[in-house]
Amino acid sequence: PPGVASMAEANSVLQLLPCPCGAELLVMRTVKAVQTGSAFVVPKDTLPFRSRRVLVVQFDGSCLEQGSPNASCGAGVAAWMVEDDKVTLVSQKAIPFVDGVDSAEAEAFASSHAVLVAVELRKKVQFDEVEFQGDNTAAVGFWNGTSRFRGLRIQRILELARDATLYQLCRFRWRYLPRESNSTADHLAGIASQLL
Questions:
Q1: Spatial separation of the C-alpha atoms in residues 54 and 82, rounded to whole Å
Q2: DSSP bridge partners of 15
Q3: Beta strands in 99-196 (DSSP E)
Q4: Three-point CA angle 83, 56, 74, nearest 5°
Q5: 129-185: per-residue pLDDT in tens?
Q6: β strands within 19-171, DSSP E
Q7: Inter-residue contact 17 to 24 (CB < 8 Å)
Q8: Of 89, 144, 81, nearest in space to 111 by CA
Q9: Apex CA 135: angle with CA 60 and CA 161, to 5°?
Q10: Does an H or E element contain 16, and which?
């Protein structure tokens, strides 16, 4: 796996943070701009991120002027292939949500699109498992079975993705990611909500 001699040559750093669920969360933060298709490089003395090929898919929803007739919602989804200490950005999407009316719907829409991105990438790249990460506890809790979204509109948004998790993805998990560590998906969601 690639490494570098000093921090000055790295474009990313790894950090262990406590998760509210009690587990340790290994978070990668970029320290320099990284283009799509480029590898993330960490200093040699940092811990490897994973020992398996894991697709990490981060998502976030955004809604401007929620609840008003002028509501403008969107989703951001960023996906990385993680293998040992090499992390490569494989997809980033800013997806406008034309019918969205509030942030709860935007988060449900974003989590659904995270699943659909993983299914789409399964046809292009090989991975052992998928880890979905989001900064909305309700969305992550829904997928983990610890909370529910109310309302028929949100249920319809989640329906297609729910079927995909049952029939098209083998090994996956959902994790809460602190908002400050979800900046790529957050940025993409902001862009998407301004496209309408």
A1: 5
A2: 27
A3: 129-134, 172-176
A4: 150
A5: 899 999 999 999 999 888 888 888 888 888 878 888 878 887 889 999 888 888 888
A6: 24-30, 39-40, 50-64, 72-84, 86-97, 129-134
A7: yes
A8: 144
A9: 55
A10: strand 12-18
Q: Cα–Cα distance between 195 and 193 in angstroms, integer?
A: 6
Whole-prediction pTM: 0.72
110 and 75 Cβ atoms separated by less than 8 Å: yes
Measure the CA–CA gap between 10 and 151, rounded to whole angstroms: 46
Whole-angstrom CA distances from 182 to 28, 122, 139, 149, 178 are: 10, 23, 14, 22, 7
| Cβ atoms < 10 Å from Cβ of 70 | 9
How far is Cα 126 from Cα 53, in angstroms, rounded to an integer? 8
Distance set, CA 146 to CA 114, 149, 158, 166 (Å): 19, 11, 16, 17
Q: What is the pLDDT of residues 33-53, one digit of tens each?
A: 777 777 777 766 554 444 578
